[in-house]
Amino acid sequence: xxxxxxxxxxxxxxxxxxxxxxxxxxxxxxxxxxxxxxxxxxxxxxxxxxxxxxxxxxxxxxxxxxxxxxxxxxxxxxxxxxxxxxxxxxxxxxxxxxxxxxxxxxxxxxxxxxxxxxxxxxxxxxxxxxxxxxxxxxxxxxxxxxxxxxxxxxxxxxxxxxxxxxxxxxxxxxxxxxxxxxxxxxxxxxxxxxxxxxxxxxxxxxxxxxxxxxxxxxxxxxxxxxxxxxxxxxxxxxxxxxxxxxxxxxxxxxxxxxxxxxxxxxxxxxxxxxxxxxxxxxxxxxxxxxxxxxxxxxxxxxxxxxxxxxxxxxxxxxxxxxxxxxxxxxxxxxxxxxxx
Amino acid sequence: xxxxxxxxxxxxxxxxxxxxxxxxxxxxxxxxxxxxxxxxxxxxxxxxxxxxxxxxxxxxxxxxxxxxxxxxxxxxxxxxxxxxxxxxxxxxxxxxxxxxxxxxxxxxxxxxxxxxxxxxxxxxxxxxxxxxxxxxxxxxxxxxxxxxxxxxxxxxxxxxxxxxxxxxxxxxxxxxxxxxxxxxxxxxxxxxxxxxxxxxxxxxxxxxxxxxxxxxxxxxxxxxxxxxxxxxxxxxxxxxxxxxxxxxxxxxxxxxxxxxxxxxxxxxxxxxxxxxxxxxxxxxxxxxxxxxxxxxxxxxxxxxxxxxxxxxxxxxxxxxxxxxxxxxxxxxxxxxxxxx
DNA sequence: CTGTTAGCGCGTTCAA
DNA sequence: TTGAACGCGCTAACAG
Lengths: 340, 340
Prior knowledge:
Two copies of one chain form a homodimer.
Chain A: H1 4-11, H2 15-23, H3 30-43, H4 49-56, E1 61-66, H5 72-88, E2 91-96, H6 104-111, E3 118-122, H7 127-134, E4 144-147, E5 160-163, H8 165-178, E6 184-189, H9 194-209, E7 219-222, H10 226-237, E8 245-248, H11 251-263, E9 273-278, H12 281-284, E10 291-294, H13 297-312, E11 322-324, E12 327-329
Parallel strand pairs in A: 1-2, 1-3, 3-4, 4-5, 5-11, 6-7, 6-8, 8-9, 9-10
Antiparallel strand pairs in A: 10-12
The structure holds a DNA duplex (16 and 16 nucleotides).
């Protein structure tokens, strides 16, 4: 309620002095500092950050756009983002796109109205196709960093932090091939776009490399959810020639796949091997424990936020992606195919 | 960049008219509206919401304080919160307390500086003990609603939305007892506080009701994480007299428990029954599928946000908790104890 | 229905 | 080292 003016009056100084006390106390006399300190306490003053943000022209807030809260992998990344954000004094505003069902216009406004000093696109891209073209001048939006997402055309110019999804997918596929699998299926989130597209591409590359078939029966498309993992797996199992291994675009799908395979009366990994992506915390305690590609989530989050801070502070950053290392974690959901 | 002033000049009207166009267009002539629309397009105008928020004295932002992003159950609740928030024009700022490791002072500032129009404490409470007492006058913070958390002393005066945790826990415990279990263990997140405390209390009540033992060996304390579910379960299994059933304070702990029991060479539910809380999406695909208490997460989120809106709009709301229904979902992780 | 005027609370000149 | 004065962009109050 009380403002600098009230504090100034109480302390018998000018508002400018109070302002300086708040921002650059080292410029004040010890004596004035004491007076102002007392006055602040006496009046119960607390900053109106609305006014400060307005005056400074920045919000000290960064916006994270993500497909869904409650996804374990993004939880790890957020932890890293938050660590750095809090260190640098930024608050975090989250926009949950509910797996991209949120209309783009809803967001467009906020990005062009000083509400955010920076934006992180966490596993997201599409919301911006519209928003960016909607703006008259492209200079107007705050800095944007892409995290955990591969370059699709609309975001290719932004700096990004991620693993090498194609290489990771090749490693995963090769692991299955080296175990002796011939019929390897791939189930994916939205094919041919972003992360899933890269992972699919890696899968195809590795399969072709070994002259293995990648006919359309083996490749299917869904969302990165348990539900779709289950649905696509059921379809796979009902085919004439079942795959002996399934590579899933993330762990949630893989966990759904394992459930359906067992439910179908088959065994993992004896009848069908399953491999996922992300190494979420549920992967290790799955039955059988899930073989997967681990990503350093927190590290990705931290690097993303550091990148963003750099851009906000004015550094020019080229848009070459920052690649962090992935790691194939071999557990028990993969094994050599059963010889019939 | 361009402001209402520029638009006003371009359109040949006053800034007030531009402002009205933005906020109450129905008060304007069709003709003026057209002129202003054109001018806005011509100048590439976009609102400075920092200025608007400042002028209006509100941020149109609500803050959600939660223990961790990436927890499935809170994800559901957030979905409900977001639905209503977006409908009402609020942005959401999230503070992740990393399971309460975040120092309270870090947050205190923002709650007393107009940065938030309202606050939701989602499964959280403690951060405020300090923050509230720290403020000179208790009137100064924005409205607060508690979601998914039982009244601990420091937050008992705030309105809240949740299930009846004690009744739910009684239902879960009775389910085990009716199956014939005598030695039922309870593993918990931070005992004797909030949700876990209520759940423990329900457990004790049900056990006592049936004259069953609840000695200290059977009750253990941890965080609501997979890790602690595993750790506490291992301890339980190594006791002389093993429990035949374990009631866990949430599903993550329960999933960890199941893993450890199987890992120990025992079977679920034949040797040990396990029951959880929340019905997160991983519960259904667990092996065996997890018996649990389901909470209507989205509904809780929606009701919480509606409550908050009401308070923000000035309604007096009493602090009687809004109780939403829970439901015992019986799957396959519970069964009668094996007769030896 | 529209224009004029004033000021939200702060940070930043410029002088003293 | 401190104070006086101004203005950020917007909206509210009051006239017209």
